[in-house]
Design a protein that fits this description.
By secondary structure, the protein is mainly α. It folds into 2 domains: 8-47, no CATH class; 57-159, 2-Layer Sandwich (Alpha-Beta Plaits), CATH 3.30.70. It is 57% helix and 11% strand. The protein is built from 5 helices and 3 strands, in the order αααβαββα. It has helices at residues 8-22, 27-44, 57-83, 103-115, 141-159, and strands spanning 92-97, 119-124, 130-135. It has a 3-stranded antiparallel beta sheet with strand order 1-3-2. A hairpin with a 5-residue loop joins β2 and β3 (130-135). α4 (103-115) packs across α5. The longest helix is centred in the middle third of the chain and has 27 residues, at 57-83. The two termini are 28 Å apart.
Amino acid sequence: MKRLLPHPMVSAATFAAWLLLNATLEPGHIVLATMLALCLPVLLGDLLPDVRVARRPARALRLVGTLLRDIVLANLQVARRILGPESAIRPSFIWLPLDITHPHGIMALAAMITMTPGTLSADVSADQRWLLLHAFDVADEAAVIEDIKQRYEAPLMELFP
């Protein structure tokens, strides 16, 4: 089975993405999505990382819920800052010290920061101990660091030990 589906999650995502992007359930597209889902992971071989399934799915769902809530709130805050009467926006680059060491965890943290409006991950240091990020409005750098560490990094450390 591992030979037919070396990366089952990639196969499932490819199948679903093809059908969603084409917005159809026609038999021809289902056959093509199946062929792509079976062939792409085999052809890509070692280029795909060996991703583990999260050990704590309930914790992962809570983290996704936190992220979605933060995205909505950040959108409102950024819109209020841009469209509102307040004009003193304080953008800043911040070096975030990383406690997480798992490469997939670091990647997930950087992606989560980038998805949240008003923040953007810009670089990871060569030793993977620091993450450079840009924030749209920073009143207190230490508070931003502590917030990211509590809301995102700590749960990710549970998921990627």
